[in-house]
Amino acid sequence: MSDFVSEFWSIWITVIVLGGLLWLAYLVFSQSRIKVAKDQKVEITGHVWDGDLSEYNHPLPRWWMMMFYLTLVFSVVYLVLYPGLGSWKGVLGWSAIAQYQAERAKAEAQFQPMYDQYLKQDVKTVAADPKAQEMGKRLFQTYCIQCHGADARGAKGFPNLTDKKWLWGGSVQDIHATITNGRHGQMPAWGAAFGEEKVKDVANYVLSLSNRKHDTERASRGKETFAAVCATCHGPQGKGNQQLGAPNLTDNNWLYGGTEKVIIETITNGRNNQMPAWKEFLGDGKVQLLTAYVWSLSNNPKEQ
Fold first, then answer.
1. Are residues 176 and 196 in the same domain?
2. Are residues 89 and 8 in the same domain?
3. Same domain, residue pair 58 and 173
């Protein structure tokens, strides 16, 4: 598929590139014809430094001119062999994606067996293997710390992986499924449906579920709305549902923050958070190692 939404842009870029090369070729050729006779006085350009140093208008040395010619020849050869003229793919048919895929396939052929050997072992056994743990740690540091942090304690919107609080479940099977298939947590925005006052009422009821400071009167009004709307996902007692990724609202573990202001923001605007699926990119062996490492962050493999 072409990178251009219209063939015009491909033609336009080709014209600019070829036009630029022709202009540079003319410029170099015209300058190479300038010669100064031995008895001819060379003019000064008018540029003077420190009162004594002046710039003479000498022609460029021949060796320097040859470097320009060689550069132009190289440019033409390159544009014939490789992409550079709009949608022209070059005689060699090279592409960055194809080169990346080839290099990745070569690396996987060399290193994948080292990862796949752990597929024969139980995840908890892999977690107890120091060598496997070190490999899992390096994988985590490469692919996971951007969201979960170097210490795996997460950040706003990204869960802490070192505690026992799991949105989607913390068993070996749950963690493996999360890394393999990814997760997509969504909460709809209720601001338009509830209105500002009812949002505040529900927010205060949510605060009361975890015994946080709240407005009792508002909480009593918000309880009815919570039971009618929010309990569908979070449950009648607000203890959440791991199958849906709906968090437990009765503890003090808050993915986005547990202040009244943040809870009001969550109810009003909703939340949309996604973890990508890693199976296709990493392969089963690396997923196995990552599963073991992440599981070990909140469990002691030696006690299993």
1. no
2. yes
3. no
How far is Cα 232 from Cα 239, in angstroms, rounded to an integer?
11
Same domain, 62 and 211: no
Say if 280 falls within a structural domain: yes
d(CA 6, CA 173): 48
Amino acid at 253: N
Question: Do residue 218 and residue 244 come from a single domain?
Answer: yes
Neighbouring CB atoms inside 10 A of 158's CB total 18
Residue 18's alpha-carbon distances to 81, 108, 140, in angstroms, are 15, 40, 47
Question: Do the Cβ atoms of 116 and 49 come closer than 8 Å?
Answer: no
Distance in angstroms (rounded) separating the CA atoms of residues 256 and 156: 5
Q: Write phi, then psi, for 155 (nearest 5 degrees).
A: -160, -175
- Report the distance separating Cα 34 and Cα 72, nearest Å: 19
- The owner of tokens 């709009």 is 86
**pTM greater than the 0.90 cutoff:** no
Residue 26: C-alpha distances to residues 19, 80, 199 (Å): 11, 20, 71
Give the structural domain span for 242: 188-252
Asked if residue 16 is part of any domain, the answer here is: yes
CATH number at residue 147: 1.10.760.10
**Could you identify the residue written with the tokens 């490999």?**
135
Q: Does residue 259 fall inside a structural domain?
A: no
Helix locations, the chain, DSSP H:
7-32, 62-81, 96-116, 123-127, 130-143, 145-148, 172-181, 191-194, 196-209, 216-225, 231-234, 260-269, 279-282, 284-297
Count of the separate structural domains present in the chain: 3
| Helix residue spans in 82-215 (DSSP H) | 96-116, 123-127, 130-143, 145-148, 172-181, 191-194, 196-209
- Mark the ranges of the chain whose per-residue pLDDT is less than 50: 1
Which tens digit of pLDDT belongs to each residue from 70-121? 999 999 999 999 999 988 899 999 999 999 999 988 988 888 899 999 999 9
